[in-house]
Amino acid sequence: MDERRWRRHGRGQAQASLLPLRTPTRPSRTTLSNTVSCCYCDYKISALNTSLYHFGRKQAKLLKIWFSIGVGFSLTALLGVTLILVWELGNILHLFHGSSDLSSSLLFGFSPQVYGSRLSVADAGYLLLSTLISVSVHEFGHSIAAASEGIPTEYIAIFLAVLFPGAVVALNYELLEELQPFTALRVYCAGVWHNAVCCAVCALVLFLLPLILSPFYIHGESPMVLDVPSASPLSGYLSPGDAIVSLDGKRIHNDQEWMETTVLIDEQTLQSSNLSKSSEGLATVHQMKGYCVPTSMIEESNEMLFIENQSACPDDLTEFVAVQCFNSSKSDNVNIEDGISQRQRRHCLNAKDVVKLNKCGDGWVTEITKGSSCLCSQEEYCLNPVPLPGSIWVEITFASPYSPECLQLGRNSFPASGASDFSEHKCGGTFVFVGDLISMAHSVRLTAYQPRWGFSFSAHLPNILEKSLMYTFHVSLTLALLNSLPVYFLDGESILEVALCHFTSLSPRKRAKVMRACLLGGTLISTLAFMRIFINFW
């Protein structure tokens, strides 16, 4: 294998740098040997050398301006991450009272959504692809910057170290050594600068994606179901292609609102749990979800319980109790005060019939009752479903826009009128979920995009594009921040050394001492911060 040598910019010194350099003064045309071992393998590419060099020389004037801007950005990033390192050191020594997790995440650009421990096989594929794209953008930046300065590329190597992919560019050693400090900075900073630009491009495309795809997809009307695993509690109720219209009466427009609303309902339920426990079997109107049940339906329930002498509701029925209305003189208050037994106040009803009725109580996410908690008529009672311990009662309204019935009607949009409109045309409906709401919300895969012309594999395309762009954004951000750190074996080491060369008031010996102190401290603090993030994420 060809011998590699590394250097840092300095007079009379041959030390380490991120960029691997070789001694020939012109591109080598010999056959490159690839490396294969149990923990590391690489594949060296030289076919692009001539194209990259010609492009860099042809556009040298514009590229020098472009990479000069990158020098300013990279030095600013180096200063920024250095300040974060100082803050992180203060947190480690308990000198500051700040969020150490936040500073550590900013230091490396880590996101639990991308680097979390619960990565699926598909997410791992996105992460691998985005890593290859990000490191390629990084190394091509170095190569093009060097070409604009007249330095040819020896080869570009794609490697896999253990399970982590990467890339590296090998440049001519002697030519790079002759560069002036600021010129060398353009080459060293090119990788960080290109990763930052890649982040900006990904963010811009993500922002404009609904507009770009608007001729083919409807965005932000209702989240569409892409997949319902068999283990999901919603399996059998929702199918791929269904659109979730509302949750407890609140209109849902995208997958983010779906998660936010489930969290809101879960928090409201926890807050009202103490009131439910202190009500001695009677539900209070505060933070309770009630239904206006006709007297005739309640009488049928009581007759059934009396005939069958049951102490619990059958499996196909749900237990309801009367909601006590403090601002009403309705007859249910009178019955309660008359001392009706707990068994007589309990009613077993069919949930499918009850959800079609008007609502009462103020436990709904939206103000369905419009001010009054006891909106039921004199012939109705406000009944509240009795939740099981650790379970939450929610109504999910959905539509099936790609079902044959809806396609015949030509329904392309979903009104906010609720389940009745969908059930009437057999385009959807409403069902009740009782259980762990957060787990339920995570058990289905949704997208904010709906195809305009039928449900097919094309429905997955926006989700694939969104995830690819999101992962590439985060991985590029991580690479930019990591290579801005003043640590050994990364771009930050070379950038810091060349930047110190501009401080002519320092002697070479003092610059070397400052360099070693910065690198040693930066590497130590970065390692501690990385370990903290690793423990928190996994």
From TrEMBL:
It is found in: Endomembrane system. GO terms for biological process: membrane protein intracellular domain proteolysis; regulation of response to endoplasmic reticulum stress. GO terms for molecular function: metalloendopeptidase activity. InterPro entries: MBTPS2 (IPR001193), Peptidase_M50 (IPR008915). The chain crosses the membrane at residues 65-87, 153-173, 193-218. It is a multi-pass membrane protein. Residues 127-512 form the Peptidase M50 domain. The keyword Electron transport does not apply. Keywords: Membrane, Transmembrane, Transmembrane helix. The keyword rRNA-binding does not apply. This is Endopeptidase S2P.
